[in-house]
Specification:
Elements lengths: L1 H7 L8 H5 L2 E2 L6 E5 L8 E7 L5 E8 L10 H9 L3 E2 L4 E2 L4 H7 L7 E12 L1 H4 L28 E2 L5 E14 H8 L5 H5 L19 H24 L13 E4 L6 E5 L5 H23 L29 H13 L6 H4 L1
Parallel strand pairs: 1-9, 2-9
Antiparallel strand pairs: 2-3, 3-4, 4-7, 5-6, 7-8, 7-9, 10-11
Helix pairs in contact: 8-9
Length: 348
């Protein structure tokens, strides 16, 4: 845990350039950004979009590299294993790792250099599906309004799996946005300026901080490409039998009184396209890493494992057992009674 001790007395941690040189350094070449709830401090994932010379689009998902700071078998690792998770309560949270790590030096904060573990896909057909011109930078692309309508799903987009890259990276998060900021940017809302340059912003680095105006055109094009890509991913999963158990917006967020912790107000959160965009990218990242780990006779990335079997003791793979028929049958009867045809995945 040596790298952590140097950070304990200085929250303005600085990246070790020698370590950065051993990684794929995305800082000079990639516009990395994140999308999270307002005021989020523990930003654990970020995204990037880059048009490649061959006309394909490189999409990246970047996860905070906690393992650089928390050594396997060290004191912090032992404490984290004992806790197992960060516990969220209505009035408090109990962190799995010290806040200086989870909300500072490990967090992919806006405007900061950070270490990450990344998955990067080469996506074919996305530029054409978006209606973008070849050879132009993202900041100069015009977004066809018709493609922003909810029903538009590109048909000819696919991930070129052999070109998928896994590895450790160094990055700079150029914009720590909220879901509302990303939505205002994508759909060019009237309140875009107020959203992206708020009068009462959170502290620097947290989600919702002001976004530099010079970045707006490139970020809008990037979020647009990711939105179309995620629509294609979601449609593909649905066609393969994926079951969507989302609440479809029927949720309530309660505001609790400071003293009694009793609900005193509530609101119904709005589900924006940015939510599903991030969800689909994380599903794709999880699936890609699982496939890589299972298929690799050697570690999936440098330092990922010590044995010849990459997933022997170094990866946790969650495998859901098939649902017993006796548990599915009542659901099928309810659906049938309501006149709803069950999907094949439920009937299998």
């Amino acid at each position: 845990d040596a790298p952590v001790h140097r950070a304990w007395t200085d929250s303005q941690w600085r990246m070790d350039e020698a370590e950065a040189s051993r990684r794929r350094d995305l800082r000079p070449s990639h516009t990395v950004f994140s999308i999270d709830p307002p005021g989020c401090q523990d930003i654990d994932d970020a995204m990037s979009v880059r048009v490649m010379p061959n006309g394909n689009v490189e999409v990246g998902v970047h996860i905070a590299d906690v393992t650089y700071f928390v050594r396997d078998g060290g004191a912090l690792d032992g404490a984290a294993r004992a806790r197992g998770e960060t516990l969220y309560l209505p009035h408090a949270r109990f962190d799995m790792l010290p806040k200086l790590l989870s909300a500072d030096v490990c967090s992919l904060q806006g405007g900061r250099d950070r270490y990450a573990v990344s998955v990067m896909w080469e996506v074919e057909g996305l530029l054409e599906a978006a209606g973008f011109a070849q050879g132009q930078p993202l900041s100069a692309q015009a977004i066809p309004v018709k493609n922003l309508r909810e029903g538009y799903v590109p048909k000819s987009v696919r991930v070129h799996k052999p070109k998928t890259w896994f590895g450790r990276t160094a990055l700079h998060n150029r914009a720590a946005m909220t879901y509302a900021q990303a939505d205002a940017l994508l759909h060019d809302r009237r309140n875009k300026a107020a959203m992206l340059d708020p009068q009462a912003p959170p502290p620097p680095g947290q989600a919702g901080a002001p976004v530099a105006r010079a970045l707006w055109p490139e970020l809008r094009a990037g979020v647009y490409l990711l939105a179309l890509f995620s629509r294609s991913l979601k449609a593909g999963r649905a066609a393969a039998g994926a079951l969507d158990l989302s609440s479809d917006g029927r949720e309530l967020d309660f505001e609790l009184a400071a003293q009694t912790l009793r609900p005193e107000a509530y609101e119904e959160p709005e589900h924006l396209e940015a939510h599903s965009t991030v969800e689909e990218l994380m599903i794709l990242a999880n699936g890609s890493v699982a496939e890589k780990v299972l298929a690799s006779p050697t570690p999936a990335w440098p330092g990922a494992g010590k044995s010849a079997d990459a997933h022997n003791g170094d990866a946790v793979l969650r495998s859901h057992q098939p649902t017993p028929a006796r548990e599915v049958e009542p659901v099928l009867r309810v659906l049938e009674g309501a006149g709803i045809a069950a999907v094949a995945a439920l009937q299998a």
